[in-house]
Amino acid sequence: MHPKYRPDIDGLRAIAVGSVLAYHAFPSLLPGGFIGVDIFFVISGFLITTILLQSLAAGDFSYRDFYARRIRRIFPALVLVLLATLAFGWYVLLPGEFSQLGKQTTGGAAFFANLVFLGEAGYFDASAETKPLLHLWSLGIEEQFYIFWPLMLGLAWRRRWPMLRVVLAVAVISFLVNVLTVQAHRAAAFYSPLSRAWELMAGGLLAVMQLQSVAQGAASTRAWKKHLQSIVGIALIVLGLFMTRSTKAFPGWWALLPVLGAASCIAAGPGGVLNRYLLSNRVMVWIGLISYPLYLWHWPLLSYARIVTGGEPPLQLRIVLVAASVVLAWATYRFLERFVKLHLSQAVLRGLAGAGAALALAGVLVFLGTPMPRHDSPALQAVADATREDNYYDGFEEAALGNQFVYRAGNGKHDVLLIGDSHVEQYAPRALELVRTQPDKARTIYFATKGSCPPVPGLFSGPDTGCDERRTAVLDLALKPEIDSVVLGACWSCYFTGAGPTVNYFVDDRKAVHPFIGGDGIDQSLKSLGEVLKRLSAHKPVYLVLGNPVGMDFDPLRQIEGSRLGRMTAESGQLKAPMPQDQAQFNARLKQVAQANGAKVIEPFASLCADGECIRSMPDDGSPAYKDIGHLRPRYARSFATYIDPALLDEGAVGK
After folding, report:
1. Which residues form the SGNH domain (predicted)?
2. How confident is the model at residue 123 (pLDDT cuts 50, 70, 90)?
């Protein structure tokens, strides 16, 4: 049994898919567009719960029939998009990239893509833009819901548990998991079904309440209440689209805007004023009908465009790709999905299930290296390997120090705490190597880092990501007597010399705001850093790690010549790049601040640069020394970043 068709729900789907598409293609136009996925979750929760409860009430529910319908609905477009994405990936990707695409393909076909991406960079990280199947994380959440929820509802129905309380309990527990984990484990809160189930349960609650209302013969809601629900629902969604940002703790409390907005629109029914005249509009309904294949097609097109062009594609190309995704979505709906819907034979069902299983297996083979992509050579492989190295904390123990989450290695007599952003994190492999090779000399090493969060109190960017709370906590932790020494570092050039993204950082000293651009923010930052170093060095040894060379010259992909659509070759050997003079000059300024405030200085430039040039390659085999434009790859840091050793070994142990 299925709920009566509602065109306004297709219109709500149109808002959801349109928001996501706009965010991915034109992020500055709709900065909160990613909340469209949350709207999809509410719709799915409402429709699936309605179907399940109606079938259970009628006594004709069958798990086999339910999952067969899910396969017919999900697999046709998914199999086509996965096949096309994998084929084009073979044509344009490098070996390492193609291997990762294989893993994504298996995750997408087997519906655990969210768990695949949970172990990688976050959804909003720059590297996410070059993962052609990243968007399938949401499909993983929904399919895991389809596995869990029928079993849960069936059990509750047989035991005659109060259905409303069951759904409410699941929603409350999931919401608590969401808000309690979103700060400390942002990626897990984003990708985990445990922290997302409440959004589907919001739709489930609506389904239960509406069916109970019908069963009890309750009077229909007055028209003005439906109109109000419709207006409030759209208003909350619009508010979410323009107020939510990728830099905020999402989902968290912010996800209430799209979830409550979508729930309010559904509750209003087709008679609500905006449901009737906006959501039920023929254009909106048409977009809603193709929303699923449109969601599947749009991201691989945009992601491959970024990969092929080597950056943000031109506006005209993005517009063309949006139009192409609409055309492909319509064709998929018209010629594939409708065909499957009209041919409900067991042979079609088995064919779809078999195709999904075959793609999952193909993804495993690609991940293991069979077949290799078209662009395959040892030099290209070396570049690809460098860009894939990103797990700096591999081998570390996750621990708590005070009330802060840290990574720990070693059991030395003395403790050292490293604080800073990802440019401190990059030295974790070297720390682990010292613990392995010199366990009697290495200190107990704690890393308390946070990306894009320099250890300078009062320093902010416009899109702050909760940096200040973490920074304040770990700097207070550094003063604890159990910490014997402290290391501070950051990508100083990223913030102070323009080597990073163009952001008008500023210092808030609680008296005034000091911008970097057009103000004295840099001077105030150095003053704040000096005060931290002075306060810490009064109690224990303190090290300031200066920046390593940063810039496009150090990007491993710069070693590649040719076009991904044509022929590609890669340079190899001992390659170098001009020393960034502005960065060297700023490091000299930082050195003065450190020495004036009692801190010891660690100078990466002294090891990485000489005679006006800096290395780009590994000293042993000539492969890239960097993983991107600024981070030393783990393999380089592990073996060659010996300049950090004085901060990680006990006094007198260095060089012995």
Report:
1. 410-644
2. low
Q: Name the token pair of 569.
A: 């070759």
Q: Which range, 303-312, 453-462, 610-619, is most confident? A: 610-619
CB count within 10 Å of CB 509 equals: 12
Q: Which two tokens stand for residue 530?
A: 């000096």
Claim to verify: residue 162 and residue 210 sit in the same structural domain: yes
Which tokens hold the place of 195? 């922290």
The rounded distance, in Å, linking the Cα atoms of 45 and 145 is 9
Question: Which among 467, 472, 438 is positioned nearest to 450, based on CA atoms?
Answer: 467
Question: Has residue 561 been placed in a domain?
Answer: no
Q: Which two tokens stand for residue 276?
A: 């009737």
Collect all residues with Cβ–Cβ distance below 8 Å to 304 and sequence separation of at least 6: 88, 89, 92, 132
pLDDT tens-digit series, residues 464-509: 556 888 899 999 999 999 999 999 999 999 999 876 666 678 888 8
Nearest to 46 by CA among 170, 169, 202: 202
In a domain, 309, yes or no: yes
CA distance 590 to 224: 65
- 354 and 430 inside one domain: no
pLDDT, one tens digit per residue, over 641-650 is 999 999 999 9
The CA-atom distances, in angstroms, between 583 and each of 524, 552, 599 are 19, 14, 20
Residue 576, φ and ψ in degrees, nearest 5:
-135, 165
Let me know if residue 571 belongs to a domain: no
Same domain for 480 and 335: no
CA distance linking residue 595 with residue 257, whole number of Å = 50
Cβ atoms of 89 and 158 closer than 8 Å: no
CA–CA separation, 182 and 186 (whole Å): 5
Same domain, 334 and 475: no
Q: What is the DSSP letter of 446?
A: E
Closest-CA residue to 630 (of 510, 499, 532): 499
Largest CA distance in the chain: 86
pLDDT(568) > 60? yes
pLDDT tens track for 576-596: 999 999 999 999 999 999 999
DSSP 546-589: PPPP-SGGG-GGGGEEE-TTS-EEE--SS-EEE--HHHHHHHHH
| Contacting residues for 447 by C-beta, under 8 A, at least 6 apart | 393, 396, 406, 407, 408, 418, 424, 425, 428, 431
Count CB atoms within 10 A of the CB of residue 361.
14
Domain holding 330, by residue range, is 7-376
Sign of the torsion angle spanned by Cα atoms 554, 555, 560, 561: negative
With the C-alpha atoms ordered 317, 323, 326, 331, is the resulting torsion angle positive or negative? Answer: negative
Separation between Cα atoms, residue 436 and residue 269, nearest integer Å: 64
pLDDT at 58 exceeding the cut of 60: yes
Compute the distance between CA of residue 48 and CA of residue 55 in angstroms, rounded to an integer: 11
Ordered strands of the 459-460 beta sheet: 459-460, 506-508, 513-515
Residues 407, 300 within the same domain = no
- Residue 398 near residue 434, CB atoms below 8 Å: no
Q: How far from chain centre, in Å, is Cα 495?
A: 22
Q: Please report where in the chains the tokens 């932790």 appear, as a residue.
A: 477
Task: Give me the amino acid identity at 437.
Answer: T
For residues 441-468, average pLDDT: 85
Instruction: Tell me what percent of the chain is helix, strand and coil, each rounded to the nearest 5.
Output: 60, 10, 30
Distance CA 112, CA 356 (A): 13
Cα–Cα dist 369/106, whole Å = 14
Residues, the chain: 656
* Residue 113 and residue 235 in one domain: yes
Quote the DSSP letter at residue 369.
T
